[in-house]
Amino acid sequence: MKQVVITAYGDPHVLKTIEKEEPQPQAGEVKIQVKAAGINFADILARQGLYPDGPKPPCVVGYEVAGVIEALGPGVDSGLQGLRVLALTRFGGYASSVCVPANNVFEIPAAIDFFQAAALPVNYLTAYQLLVVMGGLKKDESVLIHNAGGGVGLAALDIARHIGARTFGTSSPGKHAFLKKRGLDHAIDYRSYDFLKEVNRLTEGRGCELVIDPLGGSHWKKSYKALRATGRLGMFGVSTLTQSGLSRPLRFIKLALQMPWYHPVKLMNGNKGVFGVNLGHLWHEPEKVQDWTREALKGVNEGWVRPHVDKVFPFEQAGEAQAYIENRKNIGKVVLVPEA
Length: 340
Ligand SMILES: NC(=O)c1ccc[n+]([C@@H]2O[C@H](COP(=O)([O-])OP(=O)(O)OC[C@H]3O[C@@H](n4cnc5c(N)ncnc54)[C@H](OP(=O)(O)O)[C@@H]3O)[C@@H](O)[C@H]2O)c1
What we know:
It is built from eleven helices and 15 strands. With 340 residues, the protein is α/β, with parallel strands linked by helices. Helix 3 (121-134) crosses helix 10. The structure holds NADP nicotinamide-adenine-dinucleotide phosphate.
């Protein structure tokens, strides 16, 4: 089989495609012949040595795949053979074959292809946890989605629209036309304008009931200020880590120094809440994640979950694919395919 390996921490050139022996499914597992593997921002942080959860190089990352079940381990229902499925993978997704527990695979709805299916698990499950499970977003509430044009951002927009919330989204300006077409109510160019001032202007100084923020550090402080009374801030990433010209340890120190501290009395008197989301730390709660996956797949069938794939790259161009995201060019998802 083919795998894309992070050979050492570094720039996109450290990604190399290698040939490896085919894996064999163990008891209770299925082997998926991968048709598409999703790229996530965490993979880029892992390559740069900025992802504490990431394996040490040489390693294969990748949290999600879509493909066809081509072999079954002992004890697995024979009806699964040949099914089109999507699955979360605990790393190892950048490969032409992966083995995963049989109860972690889900049949792909007929309405979407393998590329869209590979764009679904991480983005929609994260957004679902942020907006529905922990953010409790309701009809007619307002939500501010940072990086609304990214993978999680577009998923959050789909879910917020389904709920009937008023949507605000930050992104680079080149993505605004697309976002408006997808149904975003208010697009904010956060790279040239102060998003907090914009939110205050658009909400007559009230703010939003929910803000989801993957940037981290001092950005979380500012997002907190964009909360309306009864508002909730969902923190789920530290994209700003990639920006600085500092060495790796200094970046973490800078990030830690910029982190907000939320005093209970301040939260109480502000009628505000804060919470964190990390899908990669939920492997011990498979039933929850499986329930959310079923909801997302129901959303595909009902038409409100619309995974958007921007670009497809072959494994051999995994470096270019990650650079495309790092250069903020992506609108929605970028996926890898084993065959050029
Ligand atoms: N906690 C979790 O479970 C979880 C799960 C999935 C993702 N995440 C986090 O959510 C964020 C988005 O992930 P994603 O996979 O959906 O990626 P993505 O949003 O598609 O990532 C790329 C986009 O992020 C924006 N961005 C902001 N700061 C950036 C920077 N310093 N360098 C490059 N791009 C930057 C850019 O869009 P604009 O500038 O145009 O807005 C870029 O196009 C990441 O922080 C990721 O780690 C967390």
